[in-house]
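request received
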Amino acid sequence: MVGLKTRFFTANGIVKAIDNLSLSIKTGETFGLVGESGSGKSVTATSIMDLIPDPPGRIVHGSVYVDGFNILSDLPKLAKIRVKSEKDVIIKRNKRAIKRHGYVLSGIRGSKVAMVFQEPYLSLNPVITIGEQIKEAILLHNRRSIAESLIKRETLNKEDVEKMIDNIMSQPDLLTRQAIIHDWCLDYGIPDLETPVNDLVNNSTDRDFIVREATEMAFAERENLNIDDILTARDYYKNVDDLHELNLRKLELESTGNEAGLAEIDARISDLEASLRSEFFSYRLRLKIMKRRYEKPFEVVAQRKALELLRQVNIAGAERVMDSYPHELSGGMQQRAMIAMALSSTPKILIADEPTTALDVTTQAQILDLIRDVNKRSKTSVLFITHDLAVIAEMCDRVGVMYGGNLVEEAPVREIFKDAKHPYTTGLLNSIPRAERRFEKSARLESIPGTVPNLISPPTGCRFHPRCKFKMDVCGEKKPKLIEIEKDHRVACFLYSDEVEEEPKEEVP
Amino acid sequence: MELRYFIIRRLLVLIPTLIGLSIFVFLLMWAYGPCNLVSVYYTVRSHNCAVIAPQEGIYLNDPVLTYLTYVEHLITGNWGIVGGSGFFLPQGQVLYYISIFFPNTLQLALAATVLSLLIAIPLGTYIGSKPNSAADHFGRIFSLSGYAMPTFWLGYLLIFFFGQGVSSFPTNVLGFVGNGLVNYHHSLPDWVSKTTLLSSPTHILLIDSLLNGDPAMFVRAVDYLILPVLTITYGILAGILRFIRAGMVDSANQEYVKTARAKGVPEKVIIKKHIRRNALLPTITVIGLLISSLLGGVVVVEEVFTYYGIGYLLIQAINPRSFEVWLVMGGTMVFALILVMTNLIVDVLYAYLDPRIRY
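response:
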């Protein structure tokens, strides 16, 4: 995330919610974002997927790279913003560009970046069952792979089974065997066979017998679907995915201004669109008319996967929960369901926006465990947003401290707690209530004087200076730059460096 | 299961409601003049009740007894006598006339409700998904003017512009021809009764003409209906539209919409599946209320268009030249019944659609 600026254009003036924020999250790490309420943590989270409600908000500058692709590469095209005065801003939106932006982003949201929100009871649709909501998420991004696994299952033959069994027979190690069977079953879309095949292999050494039995079981799993339909569906969804991929690449090229590449991509896009229109015309028509028939195999797979996801997030009675409505579940269960939904397409990064704030303490611990588990198991990066420093200490590898829309300090979690540099961070740490301190002589809890600044007219220079104990003259005049003062430890404060953050030349409201 | 008990409970509540209402209307009629109540006993209306009543052994000095007699008539199916001198219908039983006029009203109300839903839901979805756009402003002006315009005024406007000469819309409707009261100049198909002009099997001409495969008759029925239906539709449409729009705007700001976006649901599906479903829930309640107000509208519209429905019948009944006491009471009872039943249906529908509501 580089130089991100998000603004809310309100009747009282422009709220500079995020100002020039840059941070990066590595694969597999958990990055914590802390700060007071109103410091811009949640806005940061929603900006990553460009989920800022418009109106009133807009990201006005910056780039967000997800998996190497800048999702904001078409940002300048989306809207022209002309600021007459703070309270009078004219925004001219380019509807076509916004539509395309939405189309491209919808393929990334949920599949590469997933999000868990603060209030699970508000974040689930009250009139749709949990199962239906999870299935929706699965079917949005995985149709092609579902079709492929369906084809594999339906066309599975004896040779495939033989190959797998031979592979197993050559492996003496039990765990490796189990892993092979697990992968094979998932690959062929027959997860229910995992246990029986395992038993079979463990209880017998007769290769031919095992092959015969396993083949029989695999054949029994077939649903005798119309294979032509699925093949067409596979090709169709492959084209749809390709089209999205091409559009993604087109956006990238547009921002770099590569004319030759653009022309080529344009040609390929129009080719694909034409083929989607002509070749798959009858399939799409049939899909519209006989939705049930063509959707059923996908629904069945999604249903199974949703159940598996619910079990994965430790929901007791997953079958029952599938058919429940959100209000029938407790807060903890709702949050688990949200996490299950977020995991439906194994995202690269999971954004957890205060996922435990609305839950009671014991449930909090379970949810935290769950998120940590997800992080460890599938190497998903986690952006963890909270104002609870204890949670940060528990969960995160690195921590960023936000104040007034700026990142003021960024360091590994150990450093933050042992050796915090920025006066705001130390103030924050001192204001944590601790059980043992109650019985010490100076039993007063420290707090940072003053309140969070109004971001319509933020303080000049360092935004923290009006509340800072170590205020110097320069603090009110210039803005400190985020500087690496130790390895991996960056601070924006004039106590440690004189470097000033230069305002970008271009006019940004 | 609980829903069944809820329905039964509501149906039981219907009984005291109807009793209370009948007492209230009865008292009003009594205040108008006990003499008019004679006809419940006596087949010939007479203003000379001071003479007749004692002869027949009628207790006109005892309202309780008179009321109980009326209840007895209500239960046995004879709701009193109507018609004769000064009235536009020949003498007959109230229930008989209601059963003839009511299907016409039902047809009008159903057509108006269906039409307004068909227009309001897509239109409301569209303008509600784009708040403050040009389409939204237009839609709001459209619905506000529908709210503000009295039905009779709109009715007369429509008659003025489309009903006379300008187009071929007939402003008179297919209705009652019994005893040659209305000169019906078309030959009637055999599935329409010659005496009551009621079509079979549903008594609703729009549906029956289709069921019997008679497109010409269907076109004629639509022709008769179109102006009154449009008049009523505009009023209800305006109300539903406003509520759907407000619901859409409200739902669009909910957290679950953000969740859906974060899942990567395309905007079109978000609007249809996530926003609209939630926006329609409060609208259902409003539809119930609007149908009640529609009943009032029906009376006015039927009078304006001389449409032979129960509203027209009621207006005739309070004509000072021939004040038809029993018809007023019967008509009021029917309206009350419809009102309670629609509210019950709306409540049940709401419980069915909103999983959070359980009775």
